[in-house]
Amino acid sequence: MHRYLPLTCVLLALASGPEAADKVEIYKWVDDAGEVHYSQVPPPNRDYEVIKRAAEPADDPAKIRSDLNKQVEAMDKDQEEKAEEVKDAEQWARIQKLRRKNCEIANKNLANLQQGGQKAFMTPDGEVVRLTDEERQRRIDEANRQIKENCE
To answer: Residue 109 domain-assigned?
Structure first.
């Protein structure tokens, strides 16, 4: 029991509050038998070491927790934005692929319409029709518009 008394005193001094602990110095020394002792009074005629108190936390734990939560929220938001960017990039790639295909089709249509002669075309209903000069020119203009829109 006597053996733990100095350590108990140290712990009580530290637990009594930061103000009291700031004023108390703790001394550590080793006696002739090799036992380590702690006390608030330096030993007479012995080498001793002054034990430094641990520093108080720099910030309030609630503030630290709040700051960490803000950092996590910012990271989540950043991750969502990056996921949205990836989604947008994938959608942009699909649009570009579709535009290239539309460009190719418009160029083929224009080439067919410009070959000259009166061509016959099949409608979606399966009906074969011959284009008038006005209808042919309208389709050429439409093909040029599609080329301008999709190929540039």
So the answer is: yes
pLDDT in tens, 47-97: 999 988 777 767 788 888 898 999 999 999 999 999 999 999 999 999 999
Range of the domain at 15: 2-51
**What is d(CA 11, CA 84) in angstroms, rounded to the nearest whole number?**
55
47 and 71 part of one domain = no
Domain count of the fold of the chain: 2
Cβ neighbourhood burial of 75 (10 Å; 0-12, 13-18, 19+): exposed
Q: What does the alpha-carbon distance between residue 93 and residue 21 come to, in Å, rounded to a whole number?
A: 66
**CB contact at 8 A, 134 and 90:** no
